[in-house]
Amino acid sequence: MAAGAASGGSAKSDTYADARTWLLLPAWAVLGIFILTPVLMMLVYSFLTKEFRGGVIWELSFAAYDQFFCSRGLFGDEPCTVEWTYINIFWRSIWQAGAATLLSLVIGFPTAYFIATRPESVRPVWVFLITIPYWVNLLIRTVSMKFMLRDQGPLNDFLISTGLIDSPIHIVNTNFAVQLGLFYSYLPFMVLPIYASVERYNFNLSEAAADLYASKMTTLRRILLPAVKPGVIAGCILVFVPSLGSFLAPDLLGGAKNFMIGSLIEEQFKGNAGNWPFGAAASMILLSMVLVILMIFARQQAKAEKGAG
Amino acid sequence: MKTLLKTTATAMALALAANAASAEGKLVIYHWFEYIPQELLDKFSAEHGVEVVMDTYDSNESLLASLKAGAIGTYDVAVPGDYMVSIMAGEGMLDTIADGELANSGNIAPEWADPSFDPGRKHSIPYQWGSTSFSVNRDVYSGDINTTDILFNPPSELAGKINMLDSQGEVLAMASLHMGMPQCSNDREQLKALNAMLQEAKGNWASFNSDTAKEVLVSGDAAVGQIYDGFGAKAREEGANVEYAFPQQGYVVWMDNVVLLKDAPNRANALKFMDFLLEPENIAAVSNYARYGAGVSGVSEHLDPALATLPEANPPADAGAGVFIEVCNEETQAVYDTIWTNLKK
């Protein structure tokens, strides 16, 4: 949209360009103050010396990154070997967030499709219903989820009363519970963008495909999915990224027995460790990872659009 | 333009003055969650004409982190635990209470008047004290529970049903007692053994949770829960058939203290509040609410009679010794951090 305005080239559009600089100032200020400055602070802190019990000493140090990648034994005096602890924590988080994203997609896509194919007058009602649970605080929703899933909870009671199982299934304090919690926390972020895409989709195309003897699966795969792909990708990113750093679901539903990235970072600031540079370094590594993932998506998107054009 | 500037300046001056005026009647408390009855705050407000504002935290470490991150100068008083008082004093975060500034300082119980974590009570007054041990569900296990084996080497009935506090200090102190080694030991063999023992014990633990330590016992999700004595009492009063253990190997004793923070914006009101909490009647109201001991003389007549016989607050004669959590030096703390990360990796 910016390009459109600038390419006008007349005196009038120069005035607009001038005004635009000023009008954009608040937006730039917000970005600078609330996004760039904190990230830069984190970057700087990750290269400072840790102060005992939290805080930093203003001396350059690579100790935080060394701790992340180098294992030096219980007493920290052995030669450097590859430190798998934190890599495993990151890998576990990616895996959990990925599973939650997949779960959200499998449930969210049909939901979004269902809503988008209702008569126009009732669609807002369905969208409204999807968002209702999200008026409640995330902590409370996660705790209620725990009450639902626990051994003596309603889910197990129901399954036992139907005779499907004899003894309760242990769900709480497992990885699956964490995935369920993440899925439940971020489901609307999947449904809403997909819904927006499907709503714009021209259903005549599906009819045309059927007229040309395409099966329902083929229509879905070759006509609908490519058309709503931007919505699907946006939904996946919106679920995956916050899941990656979340710590409520892992702590409450997973029993906090294994660190996820979010709880590892929290521990550096709020726990006994009090190691701010290491927390900052882990955050920077997480941030770079997310950036790389987003760039890969963006590049593929651009390629696909080029191919289509 | 000039007029506009003038008006703005006047308005700002007025706003500042208004701020200063309201600050005279204000007290800003930084406190644990769910640890003081609202009626007591209202009573203090009414008695002294002071507006009370309270923020809460959920662990000693998050209190320290938020003060380090720049909250010094915002709050008047906070309520750190024993070891955190000495850490905060060492960090220079506490103001000194001069002799005679507290009219009621004579009310402090003699055994708490000169504690190791704040010699001479220069910065703090007692708030509540109690112990950290664990409660066991008696429907699940009927054997002897007064041993740390229940947590670290549990009988088969209890394996996989144990909730630990999500707190390095509490877990490692209890583990040291179990191993019969001093806290903050810098002996390499002992530290290695501690690490190995915890790795082994973790297989029997269901979860680490501090915030819901009581709920998991009440709901039956956990059959054993490491817990503060007051929370253990509440779990029992809420219907869980649990018994609080006093292990022979020893257990953790703690005391939370009201401290005067450095650069307190309302220092005079902070002192008034401390004096207020040293009145037996007022601190007894906290004990009745939180179910912990008070550390002030003359409270007994104001206490809920059930507290005097509370099993969680009255160790049996053959119980082990209660010990405070110790503050490790930087070198040992680094090893403790590694052990904790190993435990949760």
Q: Report the CATH superfamily of the largest domain in chain B.
A: Periplasmic binding protein-like II
How large is the share of residues in beta strands of chain A? under 5%
**Distance between the amino and carboxyl termini of chain B:** 64 Å
Structural class of chain A: mainly alpha
Strand proportion of chain B: 15-25%
- What does the overall shape of chain B look like? globular
What sequence of helices (H) and strands (E) makes up the elements of chain A?
HHEEHEEHHHHHHHHHH
Of all chain pairs, the largest interface belongs to: A-B, 31 and 39 residues
Distance, first to last CA of chain A: 19 Å
CATH level-1 class of the largest domain in chain B: Alpha Beta
β-strand number of chain A: 4
| Arithmetic mean of pLDDT of chain B | 90
CATH domain fold name of the largest domain in chain B = D-Maltodextrin-Binding Protein, domain 2
**Largest beta sheet of chain A, briefly?**
2 strands, antiparallel
Largest sheet: spatial strand order of chain A? 1-2
Helix percentage range of chain B: 40-55%
Q: Kindly state the mean pLDDT of chain A as a whole number?
A: 87
Q: What does the overall shape of chain A look like?
A: globular
Largest beta-sheet details of chain B: 10 strands, mixed
Describe the structure.
In chain A, a hairpin with a 5-residue loop joins strand 1 and strand 2 (56-60). The longest helix of chain A has 36 residues, at 11-46. Chain A is mostly helical. The model of chain A is unreliable at 1-10 (pLDDT under 50). Helix content of chain A is 72%, strand content 4%. Chain B is an alpha/beta fold and 345 residues long. Chain B folds into two domains: 2-129 and 255-307, D-Maltodextrin-Binding Protein, domain 2, CATH 3.40.190.10; 130-253 and 314-344, 3-Layer(aba) Sandwich (D-Maltodextrin-Binding Protein, domain 2), CATH 3.40.190. Chain B has helices spanning 2-24, 38-48, 60-71, 82-90, 149-152, 168-179, 188-202, 213-219, 229-237, 267-277, 280-290, 305-308, 330-344, and strands at 26-32, 51-57, 77-78, 124-137, 162-164, 205-208, 224-228, 242-245, 251-260, 322-323. In chain B, strands 1, 2, 3, 4, 5, 6, 7, 8, 9 and 10 form a ten-stranded mixed beta sheet that branches. Residues 13-23 of chain B have low confidence and may be disordered. The interface between A and B is medium-sized, with 31 and 39 residues.
